[in-house]
Amino acid sequence: MIYSSKHDRTRIIPLVMAVVGLSSTSAYGQMIDYGSAQALFGEPVTTSVTGTPQRASDVPANMTIITADEIRQSGSRSIPEILSRVPGLDILRSSATIYDVGVRGYQQPFQPRLLVLIDGRQVFNDDYSRTEWNNLPVNVDDIRQIEVVKGAASALFGSNAAGGVVNIVTYNPLYDKSRTANLSFGTQNTKSGDATFTEHLGGFEGIKLSAGGMGGDNFDTPKLAYESGFNDKPQHQYLSASSVSDTNTGLKTNLEVTYSNSQEAGADLGYNIQNSTDTNYSLRGGFSWETPYGLIVNDNYFNHNYELADFVLTPHLNSLVDLFVSKLEDQFRLGNDNTFRLALETRRKSINQSASDNMVPQNNEVDDNIYAVSGTWLWQINDKLSWTNAARIDHSVLHEGGTLDQNSVVTDYNNSLNAFSGNSGLVYHATSADTFRATIGQGIQLPSMIQNGVSFAVPIIGGVVINSEGNPHLKPTVVDNYELGYERKVPDIFSTADFSIFYETNKDLVAYPIVVGAPRFINGTPWILTQAENIGDSHGVGSEVELKGNSPAGFRWDTSYSWASVADAATLANTLDYKKSTPESHFRLLLGYTTGPWEFDANGQLVTSTDMLRLLSGQTPTGVPVAGYTSLSARIGYNITDNYTIALSGTNLTRADTQENPYPAIERQVFLGLTGKF
Amino acid sequence: MIPEQGYSPFFSMRRLVRLALPIACMSMLLATSPAYATDTLDVATALKTWPFMNNRPSGLIVVAILFDPANPESKTDAESIKSDIEKRTGGAKYINMTAKLVSISDVSALAGASVAFLAKDISPEKFDTINNVAIANHILTVSADLTCVRANKCILGVVSKPRVEIYYSPQAAKAAGISFGSTFNMLVKQI
C-alpha cells in the first residue's frame, strides 16, 4: 500500500481506497430486483461488498443483513436503535434524537469511521465526517434491508469506511410496491408521520414519493449547567422523489431528488452538547446498460449540506458542504468462474465557512478533488471456494480558495497525494452447513473537511479568541483488519450460528480540536490555536458469537455476545481514549413470537462499564466512569386487517431513565403507532 | 485374437474388454440411473427464474413437461411437476401459466410452449432432439437433472437442496435465442 504526498515524499503510508472505493458501493444496487433475487435463492442478495450481486452467504466480508420483518419487529422508527441489535455495533445516544454508531469500539461523538449510504448514495457528511442519523431522507417502512459490514474489510467501500459500512436499501419502485403510511404518538410529546407511495407507469417505469417528519421534546434528565439552554424541541422533516425506468433494451435509468431538515441538540466532537440546524439537498441520476462488453453502470450525485451550529462557548458557526460524485464502471464475466468490475471515479467535496455573528470575518473555502481507478476480481475457484481481490489507485488534490484572516497561522492549504490499496477475502463452503471466511482489509479514515482546511476565529467567554485552523498535512488514519469467520447452520434447532475473531490496528489516529502551542497575543487579545493532529496509534482485538433462528411454530430468537479489547498509545488519553470508552462485553437477547394477528418481540441488552470523555468544564475533556447497564425494548403488534397494524412499543422499559454514557440519561420511551399498507 | 504386429502388446483384447466394460457400465448408469426426483422446491425455484429472463413472452405461458412414457416413474414425476405448476406451489402466483405433459416420443408437441421442464429419467440420447426443437421454438429448457445442462442441451439446471443453486448454459441459451439479465448471470453457476 503506497501513499505519496508532494509535501512528504519520504514517508510511505498505505492509503486505502478499497475496491468499490469512495462512495462506490453498488452504483448498480438501486437497479436490481432484490425481491425476486431473494425469493429465488432463499436468502438476501447484496451488491454492497463487491459492487456485483452476491448472495449474503457468499460475501467475502462480515456482513449482517437486517430484513424488513426484523425492522418492523424491533418496534423502532430510529435506524440506530434498529442497528443496536447487531453484535459488534455500539450506540452512543446523547439526546432524544442524536446518535453515534461505532463498530467494535472506537466510539466517539461525530463518529467518523462508519460510512453510511442510502441505496449506495453517501449520506455521511464530509464536514466533520459523521452521520446525522435523525436527518436521513428515508421512511423506515420503505426499507427493504439494512446491510451492515463490520471491520476494515469494509475498506472495499473506500474512505471513512475504516470501521464499517451501513447501506440502507429501500424498495425499488420498478419492481416493488411500497405504499405505506404510519402515524406514531408517544411519550416526550413525540409525534411522527411517514408515508411512501410507489406507482408503476406503463410497465417500464416506477416512481416513488416519500415524506415524513417528527417532533417532540428532548429528554428532561439533568444536563451540565452550561448546557441547559440548548434545544429541547428536536424536529425533523424530509421529502424524497425517485424514478427508475427500464427501456426493455438493456438500459435502465434512475433519477432521485431529496430534501431533509433537522433541528436538534446532542454531543459533538468536543465532548459537549451543541445545537444544530441542518438542511440537506441531493440530486442523483445514472444508468445501467447491458452491453456485449458487460454491464456498464454510471452513477452521479450531488449532496448539499448547510449547517448552523451553536457550541457551548461559541455561538453560530455555519458551514456549507458540497459533494459531487461521478462514477463509471463495467461489470463482466470472463469464462465461467471469473467476474470482474472496473471503475473510474471522480469526487469533489468542498466546504465553506462564513463569518457569522461576532466571529472574526473569514471566508475561506477548501475543496478536495479525488480521481480514482479501481478493480475487483471474484474468482469462483471451485464449487466450494471463492476468492475476491480488489485494488484501487487514488489521486487526491486539496485546494484552498476564498480569503483567510490576516492572522492565520496556516496560509497554504494546497496538498496532493496518491495512493494504491487492495483487499482480499476467501469464502469456503466446506459443507452445505459450514462456511469459513478469511479476510484481510485495509480501511482509511481521511481527515474531515473541517480538520483539513477550515479556518475560523471566534471570541469566547473571557475575551479569548479560539482560532481553529485546518491542517492540510494530516496523515490519513490507516486501519488494518484481519478476521476469521465461521458460520454453521443448525437445522435441528432452525438456527444459524456465527463466530468471528478479529484483530485491528489503527495508525495515525486524528484528534480534533487540539490546542497547539502557546497563545498568540493580537492587539492584546490572546488567540488560542486549535487544529486537528495525528496523535498516535491504537489496536483492538475481539470476537463475536451469535445464534439466530426462527421456528415453524412462530418463535424467533437472536442471542449474541461480543467482546472487544482496545489498547491505545498513551498520547490518546484525554483526546480519544478508545481503550476506556470501549465496553468490553455486550450481551444481546432478542426473542419474538408470532401467533395469528399478534406479534410479540423483546430486545434485552447488557453492556459492561466504560469510562468516556466529557467536557465537564474548562477546555479539556475528562474521563467519566459509566457503570454497566441493562436495557429492554419491546413491541406488541396486532394486525387489525391485512392492511392495518397497530403497535405498542417502547425502549428503556425497565427504569425511568438509564445512564448509558456521560451525556444526559436516556429516558424511557413508549410509542403507539398505526401503520397502513395499501 | 488381435495380431500383435503393428499393435502395442498393451492393447490386447482382454485389456480392451477390461477397460471398456466399466466404461460401458458407467455409461449405462449415467444414462439410466434415477439419481434424482423433481422436488416441489425444484419446481418452485425454476419458476422463480422467470422474472430474470429478458424479453420474456407475455400472456398465457405454456410449460411443457417432458416425460418418458416407457418409464412409469418418469410419468409420475411429470404429473407431480404439472400439479406443482398449476398450484404455483412456492410462489410465482403472478405468472399466467399453464402446464401440459409432452411425451418424448412426440417432442414436436413442444411447439407453442415457452418452457420445457424435463421430468426424471429422460435418456440423454433424447437431449439432442429436445434441444433442436427448443432452439427452433425459442423454448427455455429446465431440468432438476444437471446432466442435461452440463451437456449444454438444457439452458437451466435447478438444485434446491441443501442450498439453491442454478446452473446456466450460455451456449444452450444463445442457441435458443434466450438470455437473462446481468443480475441473474452473476448469481448463477455458468457451465
- Largest interface (C-beta under 8 Å): A-B, 28 and 21 residues
How much of the sequence of chain A is in beta strands?
A: over 45%
Q: What string gives the helices and strands of chain B in order?
A: HHEHEEHEHEEHHE
Structural class of chain A: mainly beta
Supply the helix-strand structural class of chain B: alpha/beta
Helix content of chain A: under 10%
In what range is the share of β-strand residues of chain B?
A: 15-25%
Quaternary state of this entry equals heterodimer
User: Which residues of chain B form runs of ≥5 with pLDDT under 50?
Assistant: 1-11, 15-34
Question: How does the overall form of chain B come out from the CA principal axes?
Answer: globular
**What is the rounded Rg of chain A?**
24 Å
- Contiguous helical run count of chain B: 7
Number of helices of chain A: 5
Largest beta-sheet details of chain B? 7 strands, mixed
Features:
heterodimer; A: 678 residues; mainly beta; 22-stranded antiparallel β-barrel; five-stranded mixed β-sheet; 39 strands; 4% helix; disordered N terminus; B: 191 residues; alpha/beta; seven-stranded mixed β-sheet; 7 helices; 7 strands; 38% helix
Summary, kept brief:
The complex is a heterodimer of chains A (678) and B (191). Chain A is mainly beta.
Give an overview of the whole structure.
The complex is a heterodimer of chains A (678) and B (191). Chain A is mostly beta strands and 678 residues long. Helix content of chain A is 4%, strand content 57%. In chain A, a hairpin with a 4-residue loop joins strand 14 (235-246) and strand 15 (251-267). The termini of chain B are far apart. Chain B has helices at residues 13-32, 40-47, 72-87, 127-137, 146-150, 170-176, 182-187, and strands spanning 61-67, 97-103, 115-118, 140-143, 156-159, 165-168, 189-190. Chain B contains 7 helices and 7 strands. Chain B is of the alpha/beta class. Residues 1-11 and 15-34 of chain B have low confidence and may be disordered.
